[in-house]
Design brief:
The complex is a heterodimer of chains A (about 110) and B (about 110). By secondary structure, chain A is mainly beta. Chain A contains no helices and eleven strands. The chains are: A mainly beta (about 110), B mainly beta (about 110).
């Protein structure tokens, strides 16, 4: 069965800490993996990864994909209270009748204390 | 601006009633999606649509109906609402680079 699994499900850290969020997947016909941040309302897009080993970076956030081992990580360095959110990972299907479908993981709830 | 408008934002209904959640995109992108979000389950795909008049089931389609007669609209109907359908519903459109842009969500409570 195709699935996307995130770990940990929740994480509590203090400002300044570095965190690593994990996303593993078992999806046939993989096309891309996406990361989202969700605060109080709708998820907002962070990164899209399609190739192994190429790091995407935006400020203190970075992400990388390993297509051989079927996982991705999202790193946040020097965390701030504004990083507190749910981080969602999604995998896009490539072929057949499921082309374009995105399947999400359960999300990781990150809480950053001052 | 995600270019996606959902309505209503909040809805309370009773078991057995029909409810329609509306979704409109100001762009004309082909792909649109409906997700529900419940604690502990992340976002689960209900239905998606590749283009007008083309729809397909996601992970949790039972109890829901969709239509897509026009590219910009993708309504979701609960034909006979049940308490288990109490949730936050998100509509999304695909952007040109493949990412999803979400609407603000519709919070539905079924009593």
């Amino acid at each position: 069965e195709d699935k996307v699994v995130q770990s940990p499900l929740s994480l509590v850290v203090h400002e300044g800490d570095t965190v690593t969020l994990n996303c593993s997947y078992e999806v046939t016909n993989f096309r891309s993996l996406l990361w989202y941040k969700q605060e109080k309302k709708a998820p907002t897009f962070l990164f899209m990864l399609t190739s192994s080993g190429i790091e995407k970076k935006s400020g203190r956030l970075s992400s990388i994909l390993d297509k051989k081992e079927l996982f991705s990580i999202l790193n946040i360095t020097a965390t701030q209270t504004g990083d507190s959110a749910i981080y969602l990972c999604a995998v896009e299907w490539a072929g057949g009748t499921s082309y374009g479908k995105l399947t999400f993981g359960q999300g990781t709830i990150l809480t950053v204390h001052p | 601006d995600a270019g996606i408008t959902q309505s209503p934002r909040y809805k309370i209904t009773e078991t057995g009633r029909q409810v329609t959640l509306m979704c409109h995109q100001t762009w004309s992108h082909s792909y649109m999606f409906w997700y529900r979000q419940d604690l502990g389950h992340g976002l689960r795909l209900i239905y998606y649509s590749a283009a007008a008049d083309i729809t397909d089931k996601g992970e949790v389609p039972d109890g829901y109906v969709v239509s897509r007669s026009k590219t910009e609209n993708f309504p979701l109907t609960l034909e006979s609402a049940t308490r288990s359908q109490t949730s936050v519903y998100f509509c999304a459109r695909r952007g040109s680079a493949g990412e999803l842009f979400f609407g603000e969500g519709s919070r539905l409570t079924v009593l």
